[in-house]
Design brief:
With 557 residues, this protein is of the alpha+beta class. It is 30% helix and 20% strand. Strands 1-2-3-4-8-7 form a six-stranded antiparallel sheet, covered by helices on one side.
Length: 557
């Protein structure tokens, strides 16, 4: 085994004394992510902390090394940064004033959720937990580290989509595992092409389990939702999340694997539930698969496929065709399974003319092919449709009361609608406050992923959907994109500031500060400046910068 100080912090391979990892190309000098535990931190005198791989509202996930088993490990730290902060020693966590009860409540949820997952060791299709402990005033879980790539990258590398046969082999074991998890009351609520991982052996696993508080908007923790995979109820404060919520995320991920695109964000689908599938892809999918996905991707939870067992049944065979074949078998069995006591003596038995059997068989096969033809016409459409896309509307093809749903949409009058206001250029905090007050509010406000803008100041609305002036039903959602400001920022002056003041200034400017210390005639604790760059320099948003902090005069001076 390599010495612990000669391990690559990004993949736990032996550096062989080099500054750049020969396996993954990671540079040894690259700093740890802000707020994460320092490289080389030891937990429980056993687990060595490496690179922080993922951060969300619940905490941080690291790659590490289990020095007892001599294997790489995935270490997940409960560290909600909206409720707590790292202490000066870089390890312990202090709870922010007034957040103690919420911090503790979510910590208990984290521990209980992790313990429940740890008991599901028979499930090979999920990332398994093998150790749980508390340290540094927070909690940790440890899982085996599996070298993998995300489903998102796998699909991209596979040419943009994969066929049904390949998708079935990947997804069905995960579906079975999810069915068993929900039978034990365990949910995920974050299934996406990013949390589904393809292993080296070609199989797929589900990872990135987090407590429910980060899987829904407007909780005490910042949400971790993937647009297109999160169900509509996850965007609604206080709404109930159920197994159908996970069904939606699973089906959206399968839809992505088969088509290369995710469904539109769920709140937008309340006004237009159609799913766009290119004809070239549609022709390669069995109709019952499309029907199953349409059912599982219903916007309304009440109309959606409720359980994974139901989804498994729908994905396993075409129900209508199966029913027709079963009817054929029953038709034949009426004649073949007649009890001997009811059969007429052989000498007096009246033979059924051969043409009757031929005619009966033809009628049954005609019924089967009629069903197939029905699905073919309904799912593939006619060639007069545009060649670049096929529209499959889940509200029309999968709900039992679809005709009434469509008629309600079609009969809605303009008198029931409102005109979309122009929110572009308005300050997001002001809009959020107005939405919270509910005064005169005729629409919901949903926040999409922020984007850089050289013209819209940071914190102001850069774009919206639907566009201003269009008509929407009262209570519908307007999805807004808030500006992050310019992608290239100017380093602020920090010389003479305290470390906390300088860190605040650098963070506000959009950079990630780290520090080094050196002896100087400058008073101890005062920032001398930046390492390798100067105030006023132009750098990309999110860049790491190193603050030089004075240790005061050296003992020898």
């Amino acid at each position: 085994m390599a010495k612990l100080n000669d391990l690559c912090m990004n993949c736990m391979s032996d550096l062989h004394g080099k500054d750049v990892c020969p396996v993954c190309g990671f540079q040894k000098a690259k700093p740890q992510k802000k707020e994460a535990l320092p490289y080389g931190t030891m937990l429980q005198n056993r687990y060595l902390i490496g690179r922080a791989k993922k951060l969300n509202g619940e905490g941080i996930t690291y790659i590490g090394m289990d020095t007892a088993l001599n294997i790489p490990a995935e270490i997940h730290e409960y560290f909600p940064m909206s409720l707590s902060e790292r202490a000066e020693d870089g390890k312990a966590v202090h709870v922010l004033g007034g957040s103690e009860a919420t911090f503790q409540e979510n910590k208990v949820s984290f521990l209980n959720y992790s313990r429940a997952l740890a008991h599901m060791r028979e499930l090979s299709a999920i990332v398994l937990i093998y150790d749980i402990f508390e340290e540094n005033n927070v909690a940790y879980t440890v899982s085996e580290w599996d070298d993998s790539i995300s489903l998102r990258y796998f699909v991209k590398r596979s040419g943009g989509n994969i066929g049904w046969n390949a998708a079935r082999q990947l997804f069905m074991p995960v579906l079975s595992a999810l069915s068993m998890l929900h039978a034990d009351g365990i949910s995920h609520f974050g299934i996406s092409p990013d949390t589904l991982k393809i292993m080296k052996n070609g199989k797929m696993k589900l990872g990135s389990f987090s407590i429910a508080a980060v899987r829904q908007m407007d909780t005490d923790l910042p949400p971790d939702l993937v647009p297109g995979c999160a169900a509509v109820e996850q965007y609604i404060m206080g709404d109930t999340l159920t197994e159908a919520t996970d069904v939606y995320g699973f089906a959206a991920s399968m839809f992505f694997a088969l088509t290369g695109i995710l469904p539109p964000e769920a709140p937008r689908r309340r006004n237009d539930a159609r799913l766009m599938i290119p004809n070239s892809i549609m022709r390669g999918l069995p109709p019952y698969v499309v029907s199953s996905l349409a059912n599982a991707l219903q916007v309304s939870p009440e109309k959606r496929t409720p359980t994974f067992e139901r989804l498994r049944t729908e994905l396993s065979a075409a129900p209508a065709i199966t029913a027709a074949i079963e009817a054929s078998q029953k038709f034949s069995s009426v004649h073949s399974a007649q009890p001997d006591s009811e059969k007429k003596p052989a000498g007096k038995k009246k033979e059924t003319p051969g043409f009757v059997w031929v005619l009966s068989s033809c009628l049954v096969m005609l019924a089967v092919f009629t069903v197939i033809g029905y699905f073919w016409l309904n799912w593939f459409g006619n060639d007069s449709q545009p060649s670049d896309a096929h529209v499959a509307s889940s509200s029309m093809v999968s709900s039992e009361d679809s005709s009434s749903t469509v008629s309600m949409v079609q009969s809605e009058s303009d008198a029931d609608k409102i005109t979309v206001p122009n929110l572009v250029g308005q300050k997001y905090d002001d809009l959020k406050a107005a939405a919270a007050s509910g005064t005169g509010q005729q629409y919901q406000l949903l926040l999409s992923k922020p984007q850089f803008s050289d013209t819209i100041p940071e914190g102001f609305v850069a774009s919206q959907d639907p566009k201003p002036g269009s008509k929407i039903a009262q209570g519908s959602a307007i999805v807004i994109v808030v500006s992050q400001g310019p992608a290239v920022r100017t380093l602020p002056a920090v010389e003479g500031l305290t470390l906390s003041q300088a860190s605040a200034a650098v963070t506000s400017a959009g950079f990630v500060p780290t520090k080094i210390e050196q002896y100087s005639s400058v008073p101890k604790g005062t920032v001398i400046g930046y390492k390798n760059v100067k105030a006023g320099s132009q750098m990309a948003y999110g860049s790491s910068v190193v603050l030089i902090v004075s240790l005061g005069p050296s003992a020898s001076s």
